[in-house]
Inverse folding.
């Protein structure tokens, strides 16, 4: 993934609160038509019950910075309902800047915090995670060019329900 590969991502404008304020199906609800273009997208298996996401989730990412001394990593979290007649709904997002000059290693594990929310994922819905270096127009793309390689990320969401639940994804 590179700092230029996500410039044509159709989900960027669809997830921007200013750009979409006039075109959203419901005020304040951002939707997306498909996976992130130029980034990484993964879906969980359908949930076997409701899950009340509450607080600040985290994306754990084992990465290697392969081009340039700095890179921006953005994450978007979506609720993906079953069926083809309803678009995914943006639930949260987060951003982090890897900067070798400021002390970040070129290879390591990044813990990217999401902005937080309180949202109930319904039974049968899937959780979708996008990871990209570009989340425009919401965030301005980084000036320095960079490239990242990474292993599939791990998403950790605090829930109101007690106990840990691991949900596999693809």
């Amino acid at each position: 993934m590179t700092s230029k590969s996500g410039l044509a991502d159709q989900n960027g404008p669809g997830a921007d609160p200013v750009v979409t304020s006039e075109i959203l199906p419901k005020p304040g609800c951002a939707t997306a038509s498909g996976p992130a273009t130029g980034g990484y997208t993964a879906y969980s298996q359908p949930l076997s019950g409701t899950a009340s996401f509450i607080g600040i989730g985290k994306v754990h990412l084992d990465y290697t910075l392969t081009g340039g001394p700095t890179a921006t990593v953005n994450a978007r979290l979506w609720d993906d309902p079953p069926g083809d007649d309803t678009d995914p709904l943006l639930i949260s997002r987060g951003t982090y800047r890897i900067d070798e000059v400021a002390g970040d290693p070129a290879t390591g594990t990044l813990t990217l915090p999401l902005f937080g929310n309180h949202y109930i994922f319904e039974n049968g819905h899937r959780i979708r995670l996008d990871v990209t270096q570009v989340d425009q127009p919401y965030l301005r793309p980084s000036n320095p060019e960079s490239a990242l390689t990474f292993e599939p990320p791990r998403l950790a969401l605090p829930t109101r329900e007690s106990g840990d639940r691991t949900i596999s994804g693809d």
